[in-house]
Amino acid sequence: MIFLLVITALGHQCIFNEINKNTKKSVLPTLRSSIKSSSSWHPLRFSYDLIGLTDQSYASQQWCKYTGETIILSSSNIYKCSEDDVLTKEKIEYIDRLFQSLNQSISEVFNVHTINYNKVIPGKKYCGEAVFPETYTIPEESDFHIMVTSHPHTSSGVFAYAAACYFGMDSQVNKRRSVMGYVNIVTSALEPTEERFRDQVGIIFHETMHALGFDGSLGVDKKVGDLNLKVVEDEIVVARARKHFGCDNMTYVPLEDGGGRGTANAHWERRIFISEIMNGITSNNPRVSEITLAYFEALGVYKPNYEMADALSWGRGLGCSFLEDCSKWPKQNGYYCRTGVRRCTNDRSAIGICDGNSFKETLNKSYQHYGDPHIGGSDEIADNCIFVSPIETSYCYQKMSALSFDYYFTLEMLNHGQNFGDTSMCFESSLIKFIPFGINNYHCYSVACMNNSFYKISIDGRYYDCDKSIKVRGYGGKLICADPKDICGNRVIETWPEIDSVENKTISVGDVLVINGRNLDVVQKVYIDYTSCKILHKSKEQLQIEVDYHDPFISFISFEASLMIEANESVNSCYDHLIKIKVPTYYIFLNFGDWVMTNYIFIAVIPVWIIFFILLFGYYTLKVVVIRQAEEVREAKREINLRLGNLKDKPQKKKQSFCVMF
């Protein structure tokens, strides 16, 4: 079975039947061995081979070596290579990085039994589009091996497809498990950039999961209303789904019924699994949920590590009504919304926009949710339900381009303390630095999950505990925190430094401050505001520092200072309003120059605001003067008109003509 990913305006749509009928099936059999499989579970050992990218004899399809080259894709298809089709050294190295990242993810998620089988493949055999011209040996320490190819494909938008081609019998459960497969990456679709790295790993992970066994084979036929559906009724899967959706009456999990033969029945129903990695259109931030892991557990040959499951916010805890019809979806958190409104997407991977539309044609009866047969969302595979879809230029893993409309719409040019990267997520935030008031909008901030009920958010490089909201010294406005269960999966960080208390909250320069907490032995630096303090002693539960302070003007204003402990540039904890510091007057003057140098932006902003308010005052003063003068002019004109009117009402003397003769 072949699984194909197509890049659409909505994401990456996985289809396979279109090319499945033209793809050779492997001649390699399911192997049985006289040696039993190991009885213990261990992390799946993943391996891959890129020889099909450098040695043409290992790939049934030709790749492009230079622009303008003519290659034969099939007996009836002669293809001329474009620049994007050329398989360069840079692209090969990038593909290698993709699979290195995939290797780590798969090994963390799946456990298997070791299957003992003959790992030597005779020559002249093949695995999908991978060919073995001579004897080939699968790595000995491998539980699943992938052959990688990369060549053009004539269907526009195709990114990758995958297949399992070699199976071994797990004698412990008497079921077969795929031990080998192949993945082809369409060369022209590959974008070897850091910005696209994560989502392209997600696409390859999706495809590899198909090769591992997510093929819809657990699906059974079920009549639901007027629809004939494929659903999964296995109790292992349904139990996880009940827990996620909060629906105790749930008896099955639906598979996709839309998207054509290429997508239907081999993915989760997209309408209730948006942002999950195994729905029909993979997102740029796909989540491996407990429900997908349960599917693999139900196959019998995998023992998933549920602790590595990602948080899936879509539909969490919304009850049985959420599963029935999207007209019952809530009107917040990225679900049903007013057309054109900007919000964070439900998975918080991006700033999005509500994708409701008014269609000229009547929608399919099953996709009419909002009382009007012409109203619905643009995502047909999601049954035309309306929700917040990501804006292509506004994903949180990449900095927003200054050329994009949203850069100005969200006031991204101002300092909101925002940051971008693989750990960044979208939050509602009105934070603005050096401005006493906030402006409600949506911005991206880096997140560090301690567990599934507690996380921190990085604002201007400093991590703050996120409970209900965060206010930061030096910023107007606040950031609204989200439910930790929507942000964090089951993974736990046990080494992040935390402060529980300080023994003296009011301190002076030169004092010894005793800090109590957890994991303090990893701390390398301690800051009071932005002044680094000398560490006198540290242990796992206590720090002692000598108080120093070179930012006295701020303290003079607020009488409070922030306390930050730092393990490295990306691991720290910051606490506002935890301590008060006494600074002598002479110290303020001695260090004022230093403060000016380190806070020059603040100094520069003050005259700007003064000028702004002067201009604003001048504008309103001038406006009042002009309005008054205009009123006076109108009053004068009215009086003149009245007087002229009175003259017209008086009887006029008849004009006489005089003839003067000389």
From TrEMBL:
MF terms in GO: metal ion binding; metalloendopeptidase activity
Cofactor binding description: Binds 1 zinc ion per subunit.
Cofactor: Zn(2+)
Enzyme active site: 207
Superkingdom assignment: Eukaryota
Coiled coil: none
GO biological process: cell adhesion; proteolysis
Matches recorded under Pfam families: Peptidase_M8 (PF01457), TIG (PF01833)
Family (UniProt): Belongs to the peptidase M8 family.
Protein name: Cell surface protease gp63 putative
